[in-house]
Amino acid sequence: MRDTHSVNDTVQAIVPAVKSATAAGATIDTRGFASLLFAIETGAIVGAGNVTAKLQESDTTTDVDFTDVAAANQIGTLPGALAADSSYRVGYRGSKRYARLYLTKNSGTSIAVGASAILGHPAFAPVP
């Protein structure tokens, strides 16, 4: 068995909770790592909630500087709407230092959702 513990780091991208509004996830700093994967987990949807997720990038941590990631810089796709009790993953291969998930509530009441960012291929290993 290979050791992935020493060569990956995880950061909480979206705190697991019931989300009832559009919101940006945590800003993930990719410095020192050559790969980034987001893992999204959903739970119950209330009131026919329709929530979409997208990947954004920026060279700064300033909110207004974030733009949607081009399809060529994204590995995998996210669904048109997040489904209840599901798991998704999407990778980032762009060149910006910062990335984040962005959730948009299109209709309905709420969805239970959380996400982790998995940083890989570190410049220096093992990762503490």
Structural class: mainly beta
CATH fold category name = Jelly Rolls
What is the CATH class designation? Answer: Mainly Beta
Q: How would you describe the oligomerization state of the chains in this entry?
A: single chain
Count of folded domains: 1
N-to-C SSE string, H for helix and E for strand: EEEEEEEEEE
Query: Roughly how much helix do the residues carry, as a percent range?
Result: under 10%
Q: Strand order, main sheet: write it out.
A: 1-10-4-8-7
What is the first-to-last residue Cα distance? 20 Å
Give the rounded overall mean pLDDT: 95
Low-pLDDT windows of residues:
none
How does the major sheet shape up?
A: 5 strands, antiparallel
Number of strand segments = 10
Q: Overall 3D geometry?
A: globular
Classify the beta-strand content into a percent band. over 45%
Radius of gyration: 15 Å
Give a concise summary:
The chain has 128 residues and is mostly beta strands. It is built from no helices and 10 strands. The strands form 2 sheets. The chain has a 5-stranded antiparallel sheet, with no helix packed on it.
Characterize the structure shown.
- By secondary structure, the chain is mainly β.
- The protein has one domain: Jelly Rolls.
- The chain has no helices and ten strands.
- It has strands spanning 8-19, 23-24, 28-29, 33-46, 50-58, 67-68, 74-75, 87-92, 98-107, 110-122.
- It has a five-stranded antiparallel sheet, with no helix packed on it. Strands 2, 3, 5, 6 and 9 form a five-stranded antiparallel sheet that branches.
- It starts with 7 loop residues before the first strand and ends in a 6-residue tail after the last strand.
